[in-house]
Specification:
Length: 227
């Protein structure tokens, strides 16, 4: 078995299983957390309206925009680019189809049934995403407040996120060369590492962000706080 066979076979399946089990464990643990019953009379009985906070806080208030605009722009740029390349770049969709077919026997339609990105667009988005990640890292290092509150998790999560983008870009550049399979294997290994680290650190915010924001909005609405 070659390194590439391992990375896209047993290695990927183990990483996916680890990701699903540990992510599910953490989410179930959070859902089962006990909280004290709020016996106070709600200021607003339609507390469900607090769910609008999910959308309202997807961009900061005008009062704070001057201090957070850079982080917001780099964050959105990176996330949009990453998700677009992840789900719509042809090699990725083919891999998803193979994994889905192997696990369930159900085939994912590629081409007419699933939109894909041209290679040039995917490459451009990858470069932009990497640039946004690098800018965010530099900002974290030079900003005294962010540098003070940053810990190992912040920097290691950054590395785990940037590695698949960088190795994927290199694998694309050297397609057809003698290094293609080696670079592709390294790319897949970094993806496997990302999947295994994901539920262990702050990257879990991808699952917790909207639930936490919605819960906060409901509580604020119940108390009559302005949101």
């Amino acid at each position: 078995m070659t390194l590439l066979d391992f990375a896209r076979g047993p290695g990927l399946l183990f990483a996916l299983a680890f990701f699903v089990v540990l992510t599910g464990w953490r989410l179930i643990g959070i859902a089962l957390l006990r909280s004290n019953r709020d016996l106070s009379e709600p200021r607003n009985k339609a507390a469900w309206k607090g769910l609008r906070l999910i959308a309202l806080r997807s961009w900061p208030r005008r009062e704070f925009l001057g201090g957070s605009a850079f982080s917001e722009i780099t964050g959105y740029t990176f996330h949009v680019g990453l998700l677009a390349v992840l789900f719509f770049y042809v090699p990725h969709t083919k891999l998803f189809a193979e994994v889905l077919d192997g696990l369930t026997g159900a085939s994912l339609r590629i081409g007419g049934g699933w939109p894909t990105l041209p290679a040039g667009v995917a490459t451009t988005l990858t470069v932009i995403s990497l640039a946004a990640l690098l800018a965010a890292l530099v900002h974290r290092l030079v900003n005294p407040v962010k540098r003070l509150i940053s810990n190992f998790d912040d920097y290691f999560s950054w590395l785990m996120t940037a590695a698949p983008l960088a190795t994927g870009l290199m694998a694309h550049i050297y397609v057809g060369s003698s290094h293609e399979k080696s670079l592709l294997a390294v790319h897949l290994l970094t993806v496997n590492a990302l999947l295994m680290w994901f539920p262990c650190g702050k990257l879990m915010h991808a699952f917790m962000l909207f639930a936490a924001r919605g819960t906060t909005g409901v509580l604020f609405e119940r108390k009559g706080a302005a949101i």
